């Protein structure tokens, strides 16, 4: 554990970090990639170009320094980071490299404030953080290896089927190249996929939510073809691959998943954020439903409405399942969803407040960050306790 003096010194540097802003983390990444370019095969370089990763790291550093005397506050964030790290195959030997460049960055950017005493405090603090992450990640790696069908590191998979789900989204069924079983996932979790896109300088790893219930011999992911570079470099490449192509997969990860706690469930998504919701929905309808399941989805129009027919079929065959849809733009084709449960414009939960389990339901939310923030505020205003609101963030973590 850290001494009181070390904690005091680290907490005193919070204003320095805030004043320096994301310039600290931008400098850090430039320094690290210059000295250790091999790490570009692990980090999402698209997030580097857009500034999302430096912004996320800056927030993480500031939060760590502020709450270093109460690590329980950071427990949720550390869990999410550890899951993300296992999907990237981050190993213990990577932590000293990051630590070295962090300390050198602070020394080079803040020479007057980064005294030997401050350097020693931050060195001790980073060692504690690294140990916490390494310990958590070791446990996750062991769990993945010990599961039936489990594995460590990258494993070759074949794209055995491609199925269009909407104008922009295609489902990929992934089958192990070795013909073996796959590790069971918890509905809501994702896979890390490692590929070398055409014309890309480095290997790229991305996370995609599993969009189906547990299968013993395959996974299904559903990917939106992104139009913008560099964010779409991997999704565009995957869409270009034909059935029979090979990709490398890391085991299922993620701390956003179905709780299985015998309560009504509300699944809320926008756009391709419906992928983990489909895994949850397909799982819930497999067992006798004791409580209601409400499936709420928002998208631009019905041409971009993935899994609409499948959700309609589940509603028709399960009396405890219902679905509500919001289209931001005009309906191009009628008959895709029930007109009685379809709305236009932004998702306003007040329209269906009477149907929602406000007092006891668990709410799962996934989509763009602005959408999730919008929904979370509505749920809190409706009286849903924050402990029953669960959400998934794509890419670097940002608070809602």
Automatic annotation (TrEMBL):
Q: Which SUPFAM superfamilies match?
A: Ferredoxin reductase-like, C-terminal NADP-linked domain (SSF52343), Globin-like (SSF46458), Riboflavin synthase domain-like (SSF63380)
**Which PANTHER family does its entry note?**
FLAVOHEMOPROTEIN
- What NCBIfam families does the annotation carry? PRK13289.1
Name the enzyme's class. oxidoreductase
Q: What is its EC number?
A: 1.14.12.17
Q: Which family does it belong to?
A: In the C-terminal section; belongs to the flavoprotein pyridine nucleotide cytochrome reductase family. Belongs to the globin family.
* Protein name per UniProt: nitric oxide dioxygenase
Protein purpose: Is involved in NO detoxification in an aerobic process, termed nitric oxide dioxygenase (NOD) reaction that utilizes O(2) and NAD(P)H to convert NO to nitrate, which protects the bacterium from various noxious nitrogen compounds. Therefore, plays a central role in the inducible response to nitrosative stress.
GO terms, molecular function: nitric oxide dioxygenase NAD(P)H activity
* Names of the cofactor(s): heme b; [2Fe-2S] cluster
Q: Where is the FAD-binding FR-type domain?
A: 152-259
In this protein, which residues make up the domain named Globin? 1-138
InterPro entries assigned: Cbr1-like_FAD-bd_dom, FAD-bd_FR_type, Flavoprot_Pyr_Nucl_cyt_Rdtase, FNR_nucleotide-bd, Globin, Globin-like_sf, Globin/Proto, OxRdtase_FAD/NAD-bd
What's the name of its gene? hmpA
What keywords tag this UniProt record? Answer: Detoxification, Heme, Iron, Metal-binding, NAD, NADP, Oxidoreductase, Oxygen transport, Transport
Reactions the enzyme catalyzes? 2 nitric oxide + NADPH + 2 O2 = 2 nitrate + NADP(+) + H(+); 2 nitric oxide + NADH + 2 O2 = 2 nitrate + NAD(+) + H(+)
Q: Which domain of life is it from?
A: Bacteria
